[in-house]
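Re: the multi-chain job from yesterday

Posting the exact lines I submitted so nobody has to dig through the queue logs.
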Amino acid sequence: MTNLDETAIAVTSSVEIRGLRKSFGHVEVLRGIDLTVSNGEVVCVIGPSGSGKTTLVRCINRMEEPTGGSIVIDGVDITDRKVDINAVRSRVGMVFQSFNLFPHMNALANVSVGLRKVKKVPKAEAERIALDRLAAVGLRDKARARPSQLSGGQQQRVAIARALAMDPTLMLFDEATSALDPELVKGVLNVMTDLARAGMTMVVVTHEMGFAQRVADRVVFMDKGVIVEAGPPEQIFEHPQTPRLQSFLAQVL
Amino acid sequence: MQILHTFLDWHQMRAVLPELIATGLLNTLILAAGATVIGLVVGIVLALGALSRHRVLRYPSMVYLDLFRGLPVVLTIFLLGQGLPFAGFHPLGYGSYPYGIAALGLISAAYIAEIFRSGIQAVPPGQLEAARALGMPHLRAMRIVVVPQGIRNVLPALTNQFIGTIKDSSLVYLLGFTISQRELYRIGQDAAQQTGNLSPLVAAGVMYLVLTVPLTHLVNHLDRRLKSGPKLTAAAVEPEAAPVPAVSAS
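And the result, structure tokens for all chains:
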């Protein structure tokens, strides 16, 4: 269905999170997170809603400003005020639960706008790359379609193509399939699987336990703002150590 | 019959009609269109100022909005159109006509700014987030992603504002215009005073309606189209073709 595996990702990032804290007002949502993601590793973050997993992934490109701790991407602490966050974001792709495609642009413009307006790539070259990425998510023939003319699953795949157009070295997925009708989930997960196989470093917040089991190199279980348990999928799903993870899995599996 | 004669004397109307069309309609349109151009440019700057995270930009914008929306139009027209030249400021020359346009424009800028602000705030926050996540700086993300969507939302309200400015333009005659500068209302009023018959004023009213009624229906049409889901025109598909007023990128 896609040709992502043919274009193996050449450059990837690693992430090192130390003592990450985030408060909204008086509510502390992240209470000291330590997490290392190596080059090309796929880390799935699972946990009940309100556990802080979305906030965690949004801190990694500073869509949320951390209140404490450090996030080091390829040796650079991006929580440092002096870091050019726009430069960081231009190589960290993010996929949102609600797609957030730009409704006033067609699919091609959605995918090429970052190249053109951030990387200043000439229009023809940007559109060539955009078409290539649309092909990679299986939607080359929808280049001229507007988001309103696409299904939710197609919109989300365009959103993935939009992130991939920037040649990211790290991809963040924030519940990318949670807003989709059940029959549309698979197409998006297939694209994400291809991307993982191609060697992308990925942090994936998800409720899709099957995906985490099949694709993740490591699964992280969060609850109440801390990482309760982390390990390879077999360990997390077959031999959960803590009562909290055991009861969580009993509820979702 | 006396009523018909006073308000609907066809001969009186016909006598004033050429001047109403050639001079009055033209001047009303120049005043309203000129004021709206000023209003759009100043309005978008004020709107972005009012939405700014920086107090030095936000406070002056909000003071401007409060002032110009809070004062009667007549008073503002007098203060700006007569007050400025009276106080020795002649930035627009010595005729009162440009001051009339400027006063109308600065008033409508306040209302247009409010329209833009509400339109921009109606754009889902995820849009700005997605643009920022690509690495766009705040202002560029606003200009390329948020403002074009906000403007589409506010076309009906902007058209309404234009209708209001057409009607408000009937007040600038107070600044004193030359014969050739008179707009619809003034021409109708002058003729009514000369003849002691109100039919010319009725004719002027009809001319206003010729302008405003189709626009009102356009507003209704735009409103319906907006509510029945966003159908985009081909021009809006390409980002650079969207009607984006000049805002400098950072």
